[in-house]
Amino acid sequence: MAQKALCIMSGGMDSTLAAYMMRQKGYAIVAVHFNYGQRTQHKELECFRALCGTLEVASRYEIDLPFFTQIGASALTDRSIEVPTQGIEPGVPITYVPFRNGIFLSIATAIAEKEGAEAIAIGVVEEDSSGYPDCREAYIEAMERAINLGTKEQTRLRIETPLVHLSKEQIVLKAIEYDVPLHLTWSCYQNEERACGVCDSCRLRLRGFERAKTIDPIAYM
User: Fold this and answer.
1) Is the pLDDT of residue 160 over 90?
2) What's the pTM?
3) Domain at 105, CATH number
4) Is the dihedral of CA 12, 109, 4, 34 positive or negative?
5) Torsion angles phi and psi, residue 118, rounded to 5
6) What does the alpha-carbon distance between residue 171 and residue 167 come to, in Å, rounded to a whole number?
């Protein structure tokens, strides 16, 4: 029986590529998706479900985390805060969701322990991201130590971050190499029908495709 890798999948390009890379390594994929009140929650869930079909996942989990909207403090979960569209600026942007990846990894750990998984894969990108502190390699390494201290002695989990040092251009090229169905992925922070093309996430994605000299298959306004 193949070893299992639990893949945190948002429905976006990065986490989808990470899952495909883990499958290429021979892992059976356990997929987990979080609905946390984000603006594009319905679209992301739709993409996740479609991608699970292409990956032939062993099992999947759809976890609801409604408290993020109660916390607010992010343009993704608080609709009174506008999603910035003026371009990527230095510092931590208002689209940062407080400690989101830490919470995601904690829940993923519980599922991975129950499933008997060997690894947790997350598509964090440090060098070409929006500046989120919970995407840094040093943080992920510290989280790995913490989860292994807080689980059963026989549970030994690795957190795999295969994209952490890649640029968006490299991610696009690698996704093509791994035959990732990019038309089923979604990156836009604010629209669910046609991507806006001007939020930070859309700008990063479009820049990656432009530098990779290929066309993004999703529809933009």
Assistant:
1) yes
2) 0.97
3) 3.40.50.620
4) negative
5) -95, -30
6) 6
Tens-digit pLDDT profile for residues 102-125 = 999 999 999 999 999 999 999 999
SS3 179: coil
The CA distances from residue 31 to 79, 102, 133, in Å, are 28, 17, 24
Provide the number of structural domains found in the chain: 1
Give the contacts of 202 (CB within 8 A, at least 6 positions apart): 187, 188, 189, 195, 196, 220
Residues whose CB falls within 8 Å of the CB of residue 15, separated by 6 or more in sequence, listed in order? 7, 8, 9, 122, 123
Rounded average pLDDT over 142-156: 98
Domain span including residue 164: 4-211
**Structural domain contains residue 219:** no
- Determine, yes or no, domain membership for 88: yes
CB contact at 8 A, 123 and 16: yes
pLDDT > 70 fraction of the chain, expressed in percent and rounded: 99
Residues 122-142 have pLDDT tens digits of 999 997 667 899 999 999 999
Kindly calculate the radius of gyration of the chain based on its CA atoms and give it in whole angstroms: 16
Q: Give a yes or no: residue 220 inside a domain.
A: no
Asked if residues 57 and 31 have their Cβ atoms less than 8 Å apart, the reply is yes
In total, the chain counts a number of residues equal to 221
pLDDT of residue 129: 66
202 backbone dihedrals φ, ψ, rounded to 5°:
-65, -40
Burial 141-151 (b: 16+ CB within 10 A, else e): eebbeebbeee
